[in-house]
Amino acid sequence: MTVKRQEPSSVRLWGAPTLEPDAWTEYVPTGNRQVDDPWLLTTGTFATPEPMEWEEMAHHEPELLWSSTGNVTVEAAGHLWLVPPTLGIWLPSGMPHRVRASAGAITYATYLNPSLIQISWPTVTGIPMSALLREILLHNQRTSMPDTERLRLQQVGVDLLKPAQAASLDIPLPKMPELRLVAERIIADPADNRTTEEWARELGLSGRTLMRWFQRDTGVSLTQWRILVRVRSALIDIAAGRPVVSVSRRLGYANPSTFIDLFRQVTGHTPAAYFRSVSGLDDSTPLPLAPRPRTPSTTPSASTATVS
């Protein structure tokens, strides 16, 4: 199936190789069924010893993309969706998408039978990957299991699929090629300390012109935009188990409390509260929706590298 590629307009994160087939499911090319009746789902495992980018594709079945390690990005619906280990990305049937994985990442693609499940989320959706859901999807890969037992296991897995109860962190990407270059370099190194004037000199512009262009193209200042990128990078690291203190220092914040304050301004939560809201670990009490991400303050701190 050939699909027209749409350049992503933002980087989006939920508030979460060699194409070797696993023992139970073979990878099926785009356009073919990957889950046959009476099965409800199947999961493929893809390890990437080197960075990998798959061609754009769309599947007959809805797909849940998730990972256990490394950085995974899904380009879909005009956005880049980041897939930390705590969260999966739900892709509706037929949605074109492109997947990238870093070296050392392990990515899982769980396909669900659209004729036998009741889920019908119409757009890309964040799914908390609880420990129980992960173990069920992995246990389903075993070959030695009676059919009735496998079907019961798969039904429990389907029942555990719930949308993340937190707003997404949406980072607008500039459209102008010159600004996109700056954006991509900051995304690659969020701790980059260059000021707006320094970036402008590289582009042959004045600092005032770069500030005006960036604000007009993205809706936020370069200072605010870099804070969003740093929070995005921090979410990935914290989800991978790195301590908040070391993450904040890696991003250029000498005082962790400064980083936590900025994190709260962007997401509406402290890091601990944010991950509770999307982890799915406590399903007994419904959690309220997190507020929509707010524009971070541009007040400089002595512990931050200021973009002017």
TrEMBL record:
It comes from the Bacteria. SUPFAM superfamilies: Homeodomain-like, RmlC-like cupins. Signal peptide: none annotated. Residues 285-308 are annotated as: Disordered. It comes from Streptomyces albipurpureus. This is AraC family transcriptional regulator. The lineage of its organism: Bacteria, Bacillati, Actinomycetota, Actinomycetes, Kitasatosporales. It holds the Pfam family HTH_18. Residues 295-308 have a biased composition (Low complexity). Keywords: DNA-binding, Transcription, Transcription regulation. InterPro entries: Homeodomain-like_sf, HTH_AraC, HTH_AraC-typ_CS, RmlC_Cupin_sf. Residues 180-277 form the HTH araC/xylS-type domain.
